[in-house]
Specification:
319 residues, 5-stranded mixed beta sheet, alpha/beta, rod-shaped
Length: 319
Amino acid sequence: MRIEQLECIAAVTRTGSLRRAAGELHLSQPALSETVRNLERELGVDLLDRRRSGARISEQGRELLPHIVDVLESVDRLRRAAHDQHHSSRTVRVGTVNAATVPLLMPAMRDFRSTHPATQVEVIGTQQEDIHRGLREGAFDLGLVNYLLGDDTPPDMETTELLRGRPVVCMRPDSPLADRQVVTPEDLLTEPLIGMRPGYVMHRYTHRLLGEGRGPSFSYTTDGAELGKLMVAEGLGVTVLPDFSVLGDPLERAGVLVSRPLSDDTTRVLVVVQRPRSGSFPRAARELRSTLVVRAAQQARLRAGGEESGHPVVERDSH
């Protein structure tokens, strides 16, 4: 039994004519008739009732038709899934808030590239709400987002914690705040403040840090940590970011940026990777997620070693 034979029966049933079915399937009428007869001989039933006025499905064929349709629909689903998997194996789409680009995402992408040279990784920087929407609608395969410790996560998302850090003040070395060991909320009010736009976790955190009654009064707002760091490097002000977003950044390694902890603050910021609990999960996306988890574990060990020694440890990649 071949799929083409079942497609012939479905076409004759749909069109009510061997001639029209042959035209639809781009076959000659004799070839279609022979295909149907071969299937009838194999099954031992007459599937079509052939008359001078045309061919229509027989009573026996009508009883078997739901099974034929089920098989054809299953084959169609298989073909679509194979097509989607082929497409997904060549492109993995990641939505990210950019908070852990340097210590996590870039090294993971480099590792992934070494084992998947033909797969493109498409990285889109946007806000958490847009990432969740993209994951639900299939626009993203993976999402990298931030939470404050204790925040609820969407129940329809599979969430895996990758990194955990504390908020720090990111500044240039020549900033007056760089002379301090720690920075207080009051100190932040003495410098032009670069904030994240509403929708980012650090926007919410900074408002909470400075309190409802006194601000913050942002001199600038921007999208994401990467642009915020560039604005700091250009001398426009200071910004508040998770420590893992600053330590190891090329600008920090070059001495263009430094960071200082906030006084008496026990807040912890998380980076998590998310994917929908339902729906397909392409193999390439699954393997990139595993690479992120491995890289995050390596980074956490390095950070733990640095904290024990009293000095931040920055991974120096050999690539």
